[in-house]
Each structure stands twice: as C-alpha cells, then as structure tokens.
Amino acid sequence: MDIEAPGEAKELPKIHRLDESVVNRIAAGEVIQRPVSAVKELVENSLDASSTSISVVVKDGGLKLIQVSDDGHGIRHEDLPILCERHTTSKLSKYEDLQSIKSMGFRGEALASMTYVGHVTVTTITKGQLHGYRDGMMEHEPKACAAVKGTQIMVENLFYNMIARRKTLQNSADDYTKIVDLLSRFAIHYIDVSFSCRKHGAARADVHSVATSSRLDAIRSVYGLSVARNLIKIEASDNDPSSSVFEMDGFISNSNYVVKKTTMVLFINDRLVECTALKRALEIVYSATLPKASKPFIYMSIILPPEHVDVNVHPTKREVSLLNQEVIIEKIQSVVESMLRNSNESRTFQEQTVESSPSVPSITNNESHLNPSPSGSKSQKVPVHKMVRTDSSDPAGRLHAYLYKKPQNHLEMNSSLTAVRSSVRQRRNLRETADLTSIQELINDIDSKCHSGLLDIVRQCTYVGMADDVFALLQHNTHLYLANVVNLSKELMYQQVLRRFAHFNAIQLSESAPLQELLMLALKEEELDLECNENDDLKMKIAEMNTQLLKQKAEMLEEYFCIFIDSDGNLSRLPILLDQYTPDMDRVPEFLLCLGNDVDWEDEKNCFQSLAAALGNFYAMHPPLLPHPSGEGLEFYRKRKHGKNPQDVGKSSCDIGDDIEIEDEFEHKLLSEAETAWGQREWSIQHVLFPSMRLFLKPPTSMAVNGTFVRVASLEKLYRIFERC
Ligand code: ADP
Ligand code: MG
After folding, report:
1. Burial class of residue 100 (count of CB atoms within 10 Å of its CB; 0-12, 13-18, 19+)
2. Does the beta carbon of 433 sit less than 6 angstroms from any atom of ligand 1?
3. Gap from CA of 109 to ligand 1 centroid (Å)
4. What CATH number should be reported for the domain whose range is 230-343?
C-alpha cells in the first residue's frame, strides 16, 4: 500500500471481495503449515480408511514429494471428482455428528488445502474393482490404471506458489526429522498397523514398525531398547460424572532414564494431540520426585466419552479441549507421582543391596523396579473413609497389578508404601542436612509440630481453584476447605530451605544486582508504607551499613544458602527451593532489607531459622504486586498515573487524542503484564505448590487454628442441595 503524506487528500482505499482462490489459500495456510502437517493429514486419512499398512516416502523434507500409500478401503470412482473440493467429506453429515465423531478427519478440508498449495495425484482402488484410477487433480477425467489395494496420495512441489514459505522451509533441515517423529508417534499407538517412513531413494526406512499386540514391543522397535527397558506401565481411570470420566493407560520412564528433553506422546480418543498443561504437570512431578531431575519419556492414551472432547477447536486439530481437564490432569499427575516415587524408592533400596548381592542383573524388568521393599512396612489399619478420595496419590489396587509380590490387600499396600516413602524421605533429609545439629534440631521441630490431620488433607486433597487472591479451594474426602496459599507456600519454602540446606541448585540472575541500590529501593517503599520520613542521607547510611553486613556474611550465605554476593556488593545468585519455581524478583529489595534487619546473626540456630524464614517469605506465592486484571485495582492504578487535571479541559481535540492513545497503550501493557503475572502465579500454585506440598510439606499445628485452613462445606450436605455436585 502507498504511504500517504499526512493531510494529502486522496481517494479512500477500495474494499473488495477477495478472489476465491485467495480465500482457499488462506485456509490452506492454516491447515497445511509445513510438510509435516500434510503428512499428518494424509496418514490420518489412511487410518480413517481402516488401513493395516501405511508407508510414507519423502523427498527434500517433503517440499519435493510426499507420498502416502495405504491398504485401506479406497475411494469410490464416482467420488473422485469432488474429492479435493473444500468441505467434501465422507465422515460427517450434520453438525451434531461432531459430538460423537470417532474418525480423525471431519472437515473435508485437508485434501482441498493440499491442492491449493501443491500438486496432488490420487491413485485408488476399491474392493471388487479390476483396476484402479489415477487422478491428477488438475485433469478432468480420472484415468484407469493398475493399482494395488488401497490408496496412494502423492503431493509434489508443496508451497510451489508460496515463495516466502518455501524459502523459510528450505533453510530449515528439520522437516524430515519432524515427519519421522510424527510417524514414530503413530506407530506406538496404532500397534496393529505397520508403518514405514523413508527418504525417497533410500533403501532403509527410518521408521519401520510391524503390527504387534504388545505396546512395549512397538515402543522398543521404534524408540529403541534404551527407552523400552526403562518404562513403567501406568493406568488410571475415573467414572464419576461429578468429577471426571476417563480411562488412561500408558508407559512412563523411570529414574534410570536420563535425557534432557521430554518426549510426550499423547493420544486422546485415539487422536494424536498435545496438551501443554498435562505435559508441564508431569514434568514437575519428575523434577520433584527423581533425584537426577531427568525429563520423562511418556506415552499416554486417554479415552473419554466423545461428547466430553471438543475436537473442533484447532485448525490442525492438534489441540483438543476436554471437559474437566483440570481434574483429569490432577488425577493423572498423582498416579504418575506415586508410581515414580515407588520406582525411585525401590531403586534406592536396590542400590543399597548391591553390596550384599553383586549379581544384580544390569537389565532389570519393570516389575523388579516396582517391587517395593517390604522392610519397614508396618501394616496399619486405615479407616475405610480414608479410602474415599477425590484425588488419589496412591492408586491403591491399580499399582497392585504390576507387582511381582503375592497379592496383598489394598489397605496394606497403601500403608506399606507410605512407610517406605517416609523412611526414604527421612534418610534423604539426614543426608541433606549436612552435620549441623542446629539444622537437625530445626527439622526435628518441624516433624514434632506436624499436625497429622492437616498432613492428611495436604497429601490427599484435590485443588479446585483459587477462591480469591489468597485462598484456594480444596476438596478433601467429602469436605471443602479454603486454604491460605501465602501461608502454605511460606511454610513449605521455609521447610525446603532447611531440608536442602547447603545443597541448593542455583538461580543465576541475568544481571547481578547492586545491594546498595536495592536496599535504597526497599527503604523508600517502606517509607511509603509506614509514612515515616527519614531523609535520604539517613537511608543511604542504612543501606550502606546493611550492604557491609551482608558482604561480611557473604561466605556463609553462599555456602549454606546459595545466596551469592560478590566483593563489590552485587547479588548474582539465589537458591532453588522448588524445581521449576522462581520467586517474584520484585521482592528482592524487601528480602535484602529483611536479611539486614530481621536476621539474628549471633546465635547459630536462630540465625539459620530467621534466614530460612526470610527466604520463605521471599519465595512464598504472594499475590503479584500488580493489581488483578479483572479487579478494579488496575483502574485505580491507571487513574493514579494519569490523573485527570483540570487543565486538560482546555486542550485541543488533537492533544486529547494523543493522550488517549498513550493511555490506551499504557493500559494495554499494564493489563497484559498483570495478566501474565497472575496467570503464572495461578499456574504455579496448581502445578508446583500443590504437588510439592503433597511431597514435602509438614503442616505445623498452628495452621489448624490460625486461619490457614478453613472448612467451608461438607459435600454430604451439599449433595442434598444440588443434584449434581
Ligand atoms: P476429511 O478427512 O476431513 O474427511 P479430507 O480432505 O482429508 O477430509 O478427505 C476427504 C475424503 O477423502 C475423506 O472423507 C475420505 O472419504 C476420502 N479419503 C481421503 N484419503 C483417503 C484414503 N487414504 N483412503 C480412503 N479414503 C480417503
Ligand atoms: Mg482427512
């Protein structure tokens, strides 16, 4: 478009209807973003056609040629003329069918899109035909030809008419890798179909799977022995319409599997999809549970009632949306957590027995990994009502199916697990607390003050959501509780500091921060809050003194707490208290001031305790300093910043326009920052705080009375009020 000089009177640009071919290409751009998306659509079509063998040939990362051949039911001759028109499909007739659709395709858009961005040739034969048909989609009549059973679709010169796209894709060599990855995923889910994928002209296939009845065999043949031998089978299900209805089964890597990148192969109702929330939730469990903090390999298949899945939310159908997604994720997360802890602990036990039995086989089967040591298990009777859980951290019964042991009743299994777990945890604590008695005493204090009722709630509760800025709603058995997440996270962080004492991993600050300036900032903030008016000189002096003090203590802060302060008085490192969690850096100044003012540097035990408390307060999940995006706080913020002055009234309309623009931009930025901050916090509460609390928190007795937990309702009573709860 021409750039006009301001004020130049010129004809207004004409609005006109886009050519249909353009519209089609826009849609194509959405569905077929890269060669791999074309392969996915074609393979899905082959699967929809009940094929048992699918082979893919690719030339030049898919840009020159993609050819997918199958042995499925083929396409009727009379359908060929409309095959590649938009919105022609054999899978869906009315909109309502979407609710229950089982096939992967349904929009009739994929082949049409491909003909707009590439040259498509279809060869197909249906049952009972003597010959097949080949239809280059530009030709008028399909030609008879020899064909083997099924359909072969060839896409040549993809994006030949989209120069920019072709250029960007040509530079990236990883499209073939993506295609191989895609086929590998299909191959381990559709184990009764054989898949192959190769480069054009290559003798060897890069994916080659044969139909099998064993998922583990399929994984072994596609991902290799190193993956397959380190897997644990998992299962979970729920059939309670008031919370969730699903069945999940899969394989997850154990603690012997060490890689840097997560592989998550997820099928929901047999569709290959992605679910970032589930993936992150599981990564958290891995980093919290396994000492090596490896990333997992996960294959998971989730089956839900079709009407609970909305398949039509994404142009490439890559993401789907689920009913009760949060609940399902929580349940799966806790099953994975419990399986892992169990496998990890049995591994710990195995390591210990290595000396006495040096002939431990190097390749152990899954069962032996899962076999928890019976030592230390006390069978404790668990009242039946405790088995009624909305969130199971122990899928009692399910676990049982994978154990080598003689059948045991569920209750015993549950309590032996708990015993094994706590003994391991204690050992871990002992190791981690170095040999300082003061730290050991502080940890003993935590243990002796632990409230068993609250501990049970923390371990077994389901996180429902945030009720307001500070309180989360939890369900435990048939009760609903409000729990103060600030208090809880503060306590958890405090306990973590003591447990990880002298063994922290570090958060490296991107820029080292000068203590002096940060302390000044904190003092000014404090002044605003307290409305006391010290002059700047005095503040400088206090900041200076505190800086000196912290510099003096730097060695100890670094060695025990991983708080690194260099000789110039800059802060550059902080400890990791929970994996995948970084504190709100806006609170660094306040924290430093607190180190200077509130820490008792004289007595060892008091010093460690007050330092741990200061860190706890800093890392706690406070509401972000920016106001909540949906509240009135932002409005207030905006007014304060851009207070309407009476002088504004006389301004020219042009000035006001500018003002509004600046204000809009400011507001927009503020709003998006606030949304990010609050969104991240809520995510951390659900996916970091609650899972970690389940593992590590020992809630002190004081929390039972200080308003940290408030029981708000009993579901039995609510059931009477609402039919469906
Ligand atoms: P959709 O899969 O959404 O229906 P497509 O454009 O991918 O739309 O395919 C259009 C139609 O072509 C399908 O509904 C199906 O009837 C037919 N078709 C495509 N590929 C195959 C195949 N490999 N085997 C049999 N039929 C196919
Ligand atoms: Mg399709």
Report:
1. exposed
2. no
3. 9
4. 3.30.230.10
